[in-house]
């Protein structure tokens, strides 16, 4: 049985960090992983536990957690608590003591070897590091970084490490300066390791981490809470009586360490203003004897001593650890008797506020301060509570709390609202862990098909069936990743029904909250890439495949894409697509415009490889990751940001621009849903199928009626063809050689263009690239503008070559825009430049339109 190895930098047998580890590790234990936890006694210097043997610590943890530690650490010369404390004080806090740096590196190297040996002995398959970035012991952190790389390479593992930071320098008492100041030069930055997936507790922590370290693999994994309402039962019925709390007295619960930063003094002042209430403080009074004395003295001064219970350490929720500590009662037992939970902490001490989460999960209302991250974690999510904004409870806050304690119905409503809200978010941890680690990819899987979906319940059955009925590949070699993009119909139910009926094909459902097919495709590609990192043999290539939810793939589609990728060096394989002629029976003019476009496509794609279309392409996962994956560009429309539709084209351009090849797989065919044409035909005719003025966005293309469409008139057919060929030619005939001028040395390409045209195109491309390299910084235009310019300059000759290669019916270039028709020939190229680069009016974009819907 392989093991999950946990490392806590907290150096205590039970703490919030340890409890969170246990809750997360339970997902692994439920899947037959052995769980081993290193409590960090040999890591943190200020807990007085360095090299101390374990005694009865295991009784605080569930039976399925074994305690472990790295063997031989105490034998490393110079590694002890004094050394760790000196490094924290002198190197991290003060940025001095350069003489310690060689010792840090030497000890880290020896530590890393011992860590690897220990992991080998335990057959570790997953590592979870808790709080390793917090620079309490940068020597151990550096050793972990080294060990992770060694062990991952030795065992050929993907992202087998989950590195979760509960506290970061900017969240942990920043005013003390204990960890130095930003950008924390002495703290080892988290590396962009192919073996580590980083986890932050909330979006603010994730954002600040990315500002500091620019990591690729970072997700938000909120603290997990078992959502089960705390109740009075036989085991805890005597809780109040045993602690001298009257049965009918309002009880405030404070679950916290008894240290100055927790500001328990605020609870005492509040208690003094609510004469009938009691306060129970669940925390170790021995941790800071000075603070305990201060609080008991304050309680006496305020006259509340007889209503304050310093109850000592209570066990964490029994659902979390499964054991009792020395106490007969748990935190959940306290909350079962409490009317209100308190978290009146100091502003900059807490990052998450676990007591708030515990109260929410137990169905108990709470009060809190608006500490630094309260709104990020709870307030912005809609949780309701009285919030203290003053240093000491003022009259307004006291009144809110007193009224809440006196109103049973109001407390119940607030608690229920918070409970329901918290329960909906509690699935986040399980879903993320399933995605990254716990539902491993079958080692035989070589392809992940990504399917963005928005309200496609009607089409999905036959789309999924077409993916299920693929020939030439065993279903164990591919999986489907369906990305639900906020569907409001029965899309998810349809998918779940399909999964139940087809257990031999792995199908995963992933949610993407930002609307847009580009966003959904990006999320699906990232999901598939992350999952595949955990299983793929280093000798194998793994492929991410894009499909559209309204298009049906042919039976050999996936096999042909796979074969094309396996047999060549191309980073992307582009499929072919077609329409069913039956759908356009009785509309010969429209069918002629469509088929001419597809005939041109077949010729140029065979020559240049083309560019990926979301309807169907495969990409090498490593190339996808290296170029940064699908990138979303945003444009302004009517004063609002909208995501640009051409993510698939832009991705292909990025890949080709990075020096990689794109191949064409003509036998991998996709049948396009004709509704794309039926619904957009009026705008196809005018060249505005998806936008205008350079704004190209996704729109709903579902037909509003089922009426049989009529054929185009001769004028409409001519307009539709002109916009189709104007959209096609710059992108499919000119852009490939613009991005890869070496294509103009290929014999087949030279034959297509003729030697003279190929030579002049190459020369002109070099001139335009040189001219634009310091003036064009806008990605969305950086390839369109030069393509448009080259089109105008060479249109007559290119169309002549298309007629020769495709057929005389291709005809001649559509008429020039009026502003260019009377330009003197010797200044034509000059004014073409101004026309194509006039982004204020968008005239060039409107001229070329987006008739490529065919």
TrEMBL record:
It comes from the Bacteria. One of its GO terms (molecular function) is glycosyltransferase activity. The keyword Ligase does not apply. Keywords: Transferase. Residues 238-417 form the Glycosyl transferase family domain. The keyword Transmembrane does not apply. Residues 448-592 form the Glycosyltransferase 2-like domain. It holds the Pfam family Glycos_transf_2. This is Glycosyltransferase.
